[in-house]
Nitric oxide synthase-interacting protein zinc-finger domain-containing protein
Amino acid sequence: MPQRHSKNNNDLAYFTYDEKKKLGYGTQRERLGKDSIKPFDACSLCLKPFIDPMCCHKGHVFCRECILECFLAQKKDIQRRLAAHASQKNQDKDEEEERLMLQKARELDEFDQQNHGALPRYSDKSQSQDKNGFHGANSVKATSFEEEA
């Protein structure tokens, strides 16, 4: 028994003409108005009639004053962005140096803790021995007999 075509009408990998027409695919419903198209003798920047016109190599026509103002504004914007970029770069460099200094200090502290952890800590630098007579790792504790002598 053959299958009914009406049940398989949407199995194509592409749209048919009728389906495109129903969806409104590819049709232009509105036209551009007169206000959306600039007049032939109008500047592309200020949209006013030309005063001392200039033309670029692509054929765009501008007023001389408008294009020079635009170039100056772009130049100032580029300089401002370059200055901001340079300051950001300097700030990042300073932060990186500070981070490296902290890392080196942390490594030195860890090294100091690892190698000098067995030695007692003195609170007073002028006092070279603690209350038990301990002078350091290479010294021997003085006995009470030697102290009396």
Observations:
- The mean pLDDT is 79.
- The beta strands are 53-55, 61-63.
- DSSP finds three helices and two strands in the chain.
- The longest strand covers residues 53-55.
